[in-house]
């Protein structure tokens, strides 16, 4: 086990290369690790992370005013509380469930079929860069009702926004670049919002523009912030979750076989992927009153990062936490995409991910389509596996080989 001493840093190269190596020692010896360079705390035990995320009065989302609002161009759901939060969250939940979700599943299928087609006869693809990334962006644009013709331009702007949100440290030059991206994205979105207000359709932007709950509706600024929030939140983790699911199944051939034989097991495989390797590794909160967590006193005003990857591997919460096991009884698979989830990949408490049901539908649908097409799927020879990212984390690439398919997909 690596030693956690005064030289340890979450900003070090060693930690970036493989944070999982450090989690046991962090939970044991530095459960509330202070990082002097950014004057923030990193909380790693399951129960402590749960406390930070559920005690909303003590641990607020106030830091999003500086960590998110500048690039979201307005306040996002996670910053709201009380009646405003309840009403606007209901509007968003409704836009991601029921009939709306059914339309979204059509978009998921159509994009998956179109993007996988060119690779089937080759018997080889990089699941992250050839498929997952364009898939995540295309689906999100369809769901929002934005023009896919503009996808590369939108992807650049969205990349700047994502970099701002998911950076632990940011140079002034990068910060300027991120803010430029956000301003251009806003300028692109405002005329679209105005057009949807005049002429609404079934897309998410129209639903957000027209919805009302308890007499509360969304302003143009609310809708802009929500669109940018959805763009980042639906795109950033999508390719990572899909690639991590395939990596774990390829690395555990007996579990791959079980999922192939019984596709109902996909739900558990995705939930276990989210527990074992959550694509969102950090969730920040701001301390509102001096508080003691695991023996360390944290002063009011400080920023605390919940370490989701470490919490999900806590032996006090999961048996044999470092084992990938889709059959584990302590995962509570049926509840894994709800507020009662055992793993913390969607956070927990008031601000738990509103997109969890959509995320489940997206990954389940695409994985159920890809598995039968990618027969004998395996790592491409000579490929070296590497993950990147401290805030959101996933494979940099996932080169795979499989038995080439002759004929089309025919399931768009
Ligand atoms: C702006 C970080 C990809 C969210 C934030 C309030 C975003 C919020 C998250 C996730 C994932 C993104 N935070 N989704 O951690 O909407």
SSE blueprint:
Layout: H1 13-17, H2 20-29, E1 32-35, E2 40-43, H3 46-54, E3 59-60, H4 64-67, H5 69-72, H6 82-95, H7 98-120, E4 124-126, H8 127-144, H9 151-166, H10 172-198, H11 204-210, E5 212-213, E6 216-217, H12 220-251, H13 253-261, H14 266-276, E7 282-287, E8 291-293, E9 296-298, E10 303-307, H15 308-311, H16 356-373, E11 378-379, E12 387-388, E13 394-395, E14 399-401
Parallel strand pairs: 2-10
Antiparallel strand pairs: 1-2, 3-7, 4-14, 5-6, 7-10, 8-9, 11-14, 12-13
Bound molecules: (3S,6S)-3,6-bis(2-methylpropyl)piperazine-2,5-dione.
Could you describe the 3D structure shown?
- Helix 7 packs antiparallel against helix 8 (127-144).
- The protein is globular.
- A hairpin with a 5-residue loop joins strand 12 (387-388) and strand 13.
- It has helices at residues 13-17, 20-29, 46-54, 64-67, 69-72, 82-95, 98-120, 127-144, 151-166, 172-198, 204-210, 220-251, 253-261, 266-276, 308-311, 356-373, and strands at residues 32-35, 40-43, 59-60, 124-126, 212-213, 216-217, 282-287, 291-293, 296-298, 303-307, 378-379, 387-388, 394-395, 399-401.
- The longest helix has 32 residues, at 220-251.
- It contains 16 helices and 14 strands.
- It has a single domain, classed as Cytochrome p450, CATH 1.10.630.
- The strands form five sheets. Strands 1-2-10-7-3 form a five-stranded mixed β-sheet.
- The protein has 412 residues and is of the alpha+beta class.
- (3S,6S)-3,6-bis(2-methylpropyl)piperazine-2,5-dione (2IO) is lined by residues 64, 68, 72, 76, 78, 165-166, 229, 232-233, 236-237, 280, 283, 392.
């Amino acid at each position: 086990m690596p030693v956690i001493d005064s030289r340890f840093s979450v900003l070090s190269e060693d930690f970036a290369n493989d944070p999982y190596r450090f989690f046991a020692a962090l939970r044991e010896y530095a459960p509330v690790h202070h990082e002097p360079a950014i004057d923030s705390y990193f909380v790693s035990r399951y129960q402590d992370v749960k406390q930070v995320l559920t005690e909303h009065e003590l641990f607020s989302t106030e830091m999003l005013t500086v960590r998110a609002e500048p690039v979201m161009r307005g306040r996002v759901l996670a910053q709201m509380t009380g009646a405003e939060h309840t009403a606007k969250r209901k509007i968003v939940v409704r836009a991601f469930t029921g009939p709306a979700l059914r339309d979204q599943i059509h978009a998921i299928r159509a994009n998956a079929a179109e993007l996988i087609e060119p690779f089937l006869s080759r018997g080889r693809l990089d699941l992250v860069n050839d498929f997952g990334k364009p898939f995540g962006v295309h689906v999100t644009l369809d769901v929002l009702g934005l023009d896919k013709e503009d996808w590369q331009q939108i992807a650049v702007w969205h990349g700047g926004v994502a970099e701002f949100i998911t950076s632990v440290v940011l140079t002034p030059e990068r910060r300027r670049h991120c803010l430029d991206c956000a301003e251009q994205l806003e300028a692109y979105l405002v005329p679209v919002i105005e057009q949807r207000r005049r002429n609404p359709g079934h897309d998410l932007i129209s639903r957000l523009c027209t919805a009302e709950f308890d007499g509360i509706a969304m302003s143009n600024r609310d809708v802009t912030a929500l669109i940018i929030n959805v763009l980042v939140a639906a795109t950033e983790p999508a390719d990572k979750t899909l690639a991590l699911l395939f990596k774990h199944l390829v690395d555990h051939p007996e579990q791959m076989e079980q999922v192939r034989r019984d596709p109902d097991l996909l739900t558990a495989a995705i939930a276990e992927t989210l527990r074992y390797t959550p694509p969102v590794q950090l969730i920040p909160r701001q301390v509102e009153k001096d508080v003691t967590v695991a023996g360390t006193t944290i002063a009011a005003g400080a920023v605390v990062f919940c370490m989701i990857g470490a919490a999900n591997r806590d032996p006090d919460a999961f048996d044999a936490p470092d084992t990938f096991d889709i059959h584990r009884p302590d995962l509570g698979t049926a509840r894994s995409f709800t507020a009662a989830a055992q793993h913390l990949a969607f956070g927990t408490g008031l601000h738990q991910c509103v997109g969890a049901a959509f995320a489940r539908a997206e990954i389940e649908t695409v994985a159920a389509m890809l598995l039968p097409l990618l027969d004998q799927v395996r790592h491409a020879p000579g490929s070296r596996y590497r993950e990147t990212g401290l805030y959101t984390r996933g494979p940099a690439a996932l080169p795979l080989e499989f038995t080439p398919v002759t004929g089309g997909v025919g399931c768009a």
